[in-house]
Structure formats: C-alpha cells, structure tokens
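Reopening this ticket.

The earlier resolution said the output was attached, but the attachment link was broken on my side. Pasting everything inline this time so it's all in one place.
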Amino acid sequence: MQLTDDKITEIFYLVDDFCKEFNKFIDTRSIGNIPKKKPIMSSSEIITIMVLFHYGCFRNIKHFYLFYVQTHCKHLFPRTVSYNRFVELMQKQSLIMTLFLQMCCLGNCTGITYVDSTPIRVCNNKRIKRNKVFKGFAAIGKSTVGWFYGFKLHILLNDKGEIVNFLITQGNVDDREALKDKSFLKKITDSLYGDKGYIGKKLVEMLFVDGIRLITGIRNNMKNTLMELKDKILLRKRSVIETVNDELKNICQIEHSRHRSIPNFISNLLSAIIAYCFFPKKPAIKFDVVKSNQLVLF
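Inline output:
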C-alpha cells in the first residue's frame, strides 16, 4: 500500500489534534512538577510513524525508520532521534494510542456484527521453552491450524468492515469467555454471528437477556434448526472477518517473533489496529434487508 504525503499529513493531523486535547487534560490534573525538558519528537510524530509502518511497505521497523523516515521523510519529520531513543519513546505511547483507538478509530454497530478470534504467535513452537520475554504472560493454546504459544485477538466487525471492538487474551482462553465480558459487547445490539466455536446454550441465553442474538453454525452431530433466511445468508458471509484477520497479520504485521518486551508488543498491536482503521478500502459485505417471515433449515 503506497504512502503519500497527503495520507501521512491526514493521519498526523488527526493524531496531533487528539494528543493536544489529551495533554491539556493531563496537565490540569498532574501532581508534582512538570518536566521542563520535552522530548525532541512529539507523541503525535511518534504515533504517526508507528502507524505508517503498519501499511505494509516494510517488514522491519528499524529499516523503516532509518531508511524511509530519516531519509525520505525529512520534510515531514525534520527533527528525529536515534532509533534506540525512538524505541524508548514508542513504548510510552500505549495509553494515548488506546484512548485514540477507542474514541476516534473504532466503528459503530450497525446491527450486523461478526465475532472471531485469531492466534498471535510470539515465537516458533520449537522455541517455546526458551522464550523469556513473554514468560508468565503468554500461554499455549490451540487453534484450527494447530498448537501455538502466544495470545488471542478477539475482534468484533460490522458489515462495513470496521472494527467495533477488540480484546486480547492469553492463548489458552476459550473463545466463548470473551463474550462474557460486558465491556467487550457494550456497543453490540441485535445480531451477532460467529463460528461453531461459540456454540453454547448458556451463552446464548445470557446474551439474549442483553438483547443480543448469537447466531452460529451447527456441528455434524447436532440436529437441524430453523432460522430466518436473512440470518442464514449473513452467516455464510462470515468469511469477511477472516479476511480482516488476514490483513491484520500479513499487511499490518500484528504477529511476528521480534518483540523484546511486553510494552513493545502492546504498542505494536495497537498501532497496527489503528493503521487498519485508516485503510481506505476495507473488506465489506452488501446486504439489503427485505422483510420476510420465511424460515429455512440450517
């Protein structure tokens, strides 16, 4: 995905406006002396560079910073620091990025929401016992493609391809546990479509009380059930969320084995999701609702 000066300026403008409001809020509520010496690079510049990296032009952030930002973007970022200093400043932006993502980037619920989880491996399976960075944080889990060591990213997606909310858990956490988190589903109304991993009678009843209809496929040993034709069609279009997971991994690079600390992992994940939210084209579905009482067998 090609980066232009106009796109970089657009992202920086939105991030900078948010950072200014955030700093005003923090300064009025800070306790103690405010440091007189400020970093050469502002928080908005650092966050913008992190977001730009996840547009898929480079596979290594060090090369991106040294050979693209400091070489070809001097007119946009005239005052840059060394790479080691940039990494230190990068890890301190997690709070601002979290708030910016929640308040300015995530989409709204349209009544059609898809839920899915994708594994985030932090190392090769052969190196699980030797991994020290994520010891005590990551866990061994199993997905449809096999065992892995790391975390799970749970996302909620609307029919426009916009991420409505997300949740990070350890790799051994059941997918259904994420739906029991009230804050994860606070924006969701009407229909929620998931795969067979979300099948559960108690979970369906719990969500129905909150006004959410959980619609999933059925296993081979289960009896056929009646559902509206609209729900059957939308359930078949659930592959849109798989496409988003693929873009997050292969373009935004939320998954790699080069992390050297937990703050580095969190800042990388947050900036990747922000980058996806700025994509001009997102996987989406077209569906016109027609009022019908027709029922079909799944």
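Reporter confirms the inline version is readable. The two ends are 39 Å apart (CA to CA). The chain has a mean pLDDT of 89.
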